[in-house]
Design a protein that fits this description.
Ferritin, 12% strand, alpha/beta, nine-stranded mixed sheet
Amino acid sequence: MARSRNLDVTALEGWLWEAACVIRGPIDAPKFKDYILPLVFLKRLSDVFEDEVEALGETAKFVEKDHSLVRFYIPKDARWEDISKRTVDLGEYLTDAIRAVARQNPKLQGVIDFVDFNATAAGQRIVSDESLRELVQVLGRHRLGIEDVEPDIFGRAYEYLLRKFTEGQGRSAGERYTPREVAILISNILDPEPGNSIYDPNTGSAGLLIKTHLRFKEKHGDCKTLKPLSFYGQEIEVSTYAIARMNTFIYDMDADIRLGNTMTNPAFTNPDGGLMRFDIVAANPMWNQNFQKTVYEHDSFDRFGFGIPFASSADWGWIQHMYHSLKDAGKMAVVLDTGAVSRGSGNQGADRERDIRKVFVEKDLIECVILLPENLFYNTTAPGIIMVINCEKKHPGEVLLVNASKQFEKGKPKNYLPEPNIAKIANSYLNWQSEEALSQIITTDVAIRNDYNLSPSRYLATDQQEDVLPIDEAVILLKEAEEERSDADEGLKESLKSLGLLESAG
C-alpha cells in the first residue's frame, strides 16, 4: 500500500481512531494511548532514522558499524520494516524492540520502555498478537519522517486520544497541547538568539520549545559556529512528560525536561535556593487553574510579591512565577484566558487580579497583548490571548494591542490561523506598528486611565456586535465574588473575636 505524506489533522485523527478501535475491546479507554503512542513513536523513530541513513548516500553502508554517523541508532529488529513482517509472538517482540531502542539510546530509558505488550490479566493476554498485528498494519499506513508530519505530532496525537476518552469529564482534555499556529506565532515573537536559554514551566508535549528550536534553525541554519540554544521544562503529568522527552529527543535538542509540579515545587533552582533564570519563557498553562491561597502565602521563592491571585484562577500566579524566572533582560510569551487582561477593571474598590495587573503595567513590563480567534484550542471554543512581558522593552511606556480575532479560517473540527495571517500578526509586533482594525499602540497612561484593562477588543473593534460575557468568564467572576465574601466574613469574625463580641454576634 502506498504511504501518504503530509498527514493533516483530519487524516491524523481518523488514523488514530482506527488504531484505537483495534484494541478498544480488551483495554480500558484511558489506557489506549499508553499502547498506541509508544508504537507511534517507534514508527516515527524508524522513519526518521531511515531518512537520515538515506541522506548519507554512500556513507550509509558504514552506519551499522559506526553509529555516530546518525543522531540516534535504531537496532535492526526494532525498525518498522522488520516489525511489520513479524507474525508470531508479536507482544514479546514489540516489548523487546522498544526496550532495545531505549538501551541503545539512554535518553529514552524510562520514557518509552514502560509498556509490556505481552502483559496478561487473570491468566490471559490483555492484547492478543492478532490485535497487535492489526494495530501495526494500521500504524504503518502513514510515513512519520521529519518532512512528513508536523513537529509536535505526539502532542496532537496525545491530545486527540485524551479528548476522545475524556469527553464529558471536565477541562482536562486540552491542558497540554498548544495549536501549531499559536506556537509558531509565539516562536516568531520571541525570536531566540544564539546561546539563549528557553524555559517552559508547563511543558506539555514540548511543542512550544520545539517551535522556538525550529525558528532558530530557520533563521540561522545549522551553523556550527553559533552557540546553541538550551531548553528547560517541567511537566506534572507523567504521560505528557514522556511525550515531551520523546519530542525533544527526535529533534536532538539540548533539553532538560523534569517531572513535577512547578507551582508547588519548581525543579530549576540555584545552589542558593533561588529560582534559575532564563533568557526566554514560553508557556501555555492550564487556564484559570485552582490553587489555594496557602500555595502563594507559604511560597519559599518570593514569587508572589505583586499580589496573591484568587483561588479560582492561577493565571497571575503563573505570570509571576514566569516573570521571576526571567533574567534582567528576559522576555516571555504566555497563552492565557482572555479574562486575564480585563477581570477586575472597572470594579469599585480593590480587586486582586486588577491590582496585580496594575503592578505589571506601572512597572512597564507588559509589551504586547494579542487576542486570538475563537475555537482554536482542543478543550474550549473560547478565544485566548498571548501576553508578552519584556524586562527590557524597546518601546518604553508603550503597549501594543493586537486584535487577531478575525484572522482565522474555519476548519474541521477547529479553526486555524493561515500562514500569511501568522506572519501578519507577528509583523505587527516585530515592526511595532498600528494597523487599522488589527493593531494599536497605546501608552501606559492610557492603560492606567482604563483601569488597567488591556483587552485588545476594548481598543480595537472589528465589528459592531455587542460583547457578551462568556459563560466560563462569568463562572470565574462568580467564584471570585464568593471568595471575596468568604474573606470578608473571616475578617469580620476575627474583628468580633478580638473585641470579645463573637458569641453575642452569633
